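Hey, quick one: can you model this chain's 3D structure?
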Amino acid sequence: MRTYSGHRQPDFHVRYRFFSPAEGGRSTPPRQHTRWDFLYADDDPRRDRLYMIWPEFIDPAGSVWPEGEVPMEGDALMFIVNPDWVSQHRQRIAVGTRGFFMEGSRKVAACEVTALLGLSVQPGKTWMSYGGVNSVNGQRGCARISAGSTWPANKRWQPA
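Sure thing. Here's the predicted structure for all 160 residues.
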């Protein structure tokens, strides 16, 4: 499968941890490109909307894991699937926002936003900033990526 980040920039970055079966989590290991829904930590899965915000898991060096099993905890780039919802998520997501990967109404993993990427690009702006090392030019703190541009497929997310 072609990676999500191969054709568009990620919206934000998270640290995640899948729950063990004893915690009510998955009985099988998580896999790359499974399309889990996203639930904000303050929302109730029986009452509130689940969102199509899909993870793409990355290794400690910032490269996308290949197809197959991924670690039970680590880092992921997140992609808001429906562009009509970007403005709403821009109002709710900030560094420190917590949420869950969902299978139906079941929470299978917890996550916390560690950086805003494409989500921080406002229409008409040509910048975004985050706390990691800029994967476009290697500088810390600020990447210059135009709104609507694609995330460079040969570049890696490098957490601080």
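One thing worth noting: The helical segments are 86-92.
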